[in-house]
Amino acid sequence: MQIGLGLLAPARNADIGIAAIDCGADAVYIAGPAFGARAAAGNPVEEIARLCRYAHLYGVKIHATVNTLLLGGELREAEELMWALYRAGVDVFIVQDLNLLELSLPPVELHASTQTAIRTPERAAALEALGFSRLVLERQLTLEQIRAIRKATTCGLEFFIHGALCVGYSGECYLSQAITGRSANRGACAQLCRSRYDLVDAGGNVLVRDRTLLSPKDIRFDSRLADLVGAGITSFKIEGRLKNASYVKNVVRHYRNVIDRFIAENPEYCHASAGRPEGGFVPDPDRTFSRGWTTAFLDGRKGSLSSVDAAKALGEPVGEIVSIKGRDIVVKGVSGSVPALANGDGLSFVGRRDEVSGKRAEVVQGNRVTLRDTDGLVPGMRVYRNFDISFERELERNMPVRLIDVTLGWSSRGGETVVTAVTEDGIRAEKRFQDDAPAAEKPQAAQESLQRQMGKRSGPFAFTLKTIDADPVRFFPVSFLNQLRRDLAAELQDKCADRPRCEVPHQVRPGAGALNRSTLEVPQELLRSRYCIKWELGLCKKSSPKEPLYLVNQGNRLRLRFDCANCEMVVERPN
Prior knowledge:
Elements: E1 3-10, H1 14-22, E2 27-31, H2 45-57, E3 61-66, H3 75-88, E4 92-95, E5 109-112, H4 121-129, E6 134-136, H5 143-152, E7 156-163, H6 175-180, E8 197-200, E9 206-211, E10 218-220, H7 225-231, E11 235-238, H8 245-265, E12 269-271, E13 276-278, E14 293-294, E15 316-325, E16 328-333, E17 346-350, E18 356-365, E19 368-371, E20 382-387, H9 389-397, E21 401-413, E22 416-423, E23 428-434, H10 443-454, E24 457-458, E25 461-470, H11 478-497, E26 525-529, H12 533-536, E27 549-553, E28 556-563, E29 568-572
Parallel strand pairs: 1-2, 1-11, 1-12, 2-3, 3-4, 4-5, 5-6, 6-7, 7-11, 10-14, 21-25
Antiparallel strand pairs: 7-10, 8-9, 8-27, 13-21, 15-16, 15-20, 16-19, 17-18, 17-20, 18-19, 21-22, 22-23, 24-25, 26-29, 27-28, 28-29
């Protein structure tokens, strides 16, 4: 039996979800109107229903995020919302607050959010025992840890394959809530890990000034797919429910190609949905949002994870400024080449102290770029492109078309013709008709015409006439064959859109909420992480500055503690 490999895409809204499906997503995760862990990415139930109708045509599953911690009075409201989303067609709920398991929930799959803090085999096994059919693992795990979790569980395992890496362990970061009152566990993270800090020692000496010391690069595991599959991952999740459509399109299309190549070389695996994207733009993850790339801790602690000062997005390297005159800069491209810039490109400039500024290219003539102003720029600054206007236009106007392959069989005997259509995932349609068309004078030519006319695209289907069993071979007008193909497509479309959901009845689990790891209160320990400032600054296992160390920003003072036995850094409230 083949094992399905799924690509799970983020969607801020239904239109982005539909674009992700067209680009090859096997599933889409999206928030309803509340409780979705991204306060700025809620959607009406009607929009979720529209997305579900489109998704189910291709056997794509819609995962609704109900992954915030809930106040006591919100539990019944969340339960009602989940039933409304179920009626809208949702296939899966991604859950953080385990108190929900004590309620009567819709009979579809439940997935444990990464916010449930899944880092150990014991935690994974406990969550599986509560009835979760899939676990979304912590992003900072190693391959060895993933393999250990796989050994301890039988349910599906999901792992983030691309996008932002939270500096703190998911579900247990209280930095935003402690400083701004905005709780990450309530969907309102202020992303203070991307802020700039001074690093100060116990004596008050400033060791590092004004740097994004808590900001990691983005993860990118396209080259590690085989390793992740080997460790037990079967669902690959792209981060980015707040990202724009161009990011989602580009990244989904790229990973669709990566997974397709893997499946082609490993026949024991198969696709998790129907259809394939055909044509369209050529993806390139370097040309949309990133803070630089890392494989995080997949192989243990190796290399730097810090995004330095690219807490937003530097983009792809272009070169450096050679000279400045008025509003014009001259840029020497990478390896001395002329940078392929265009009017309207967005540029990032990085100075000697790693400060970053951004400007728009108004006029580009070879390596001469006219800006609105050159304030703050000096020769020698590194130049990056963080908005590629040509690529953005290509993503907008040159989308792939998602097609479902259909095999046709033609049988004509005794005056009756039966045409059967079977999709790649086994959905069937059939047309029968009494056959009084004249016998073909040229049977071979008639069969070739039959194959040509029936073997075309209709709607989302790519038809191929595989078998013809006809005695005699008859001649049919092109108009008749085209209408027959369209009728088959209409019947298939209705059946594909009405694919049955996987019904999973749930037991009420009294006491499940006691297993919540996250809290609505702010503890002394604000975050714990494998990301370590001492490691990043080359201070690990060397004579360190006088500890404790502190992060200081606009009057806020955070104490750092280094749990070297577990190779973890802890950010705490100061005593």
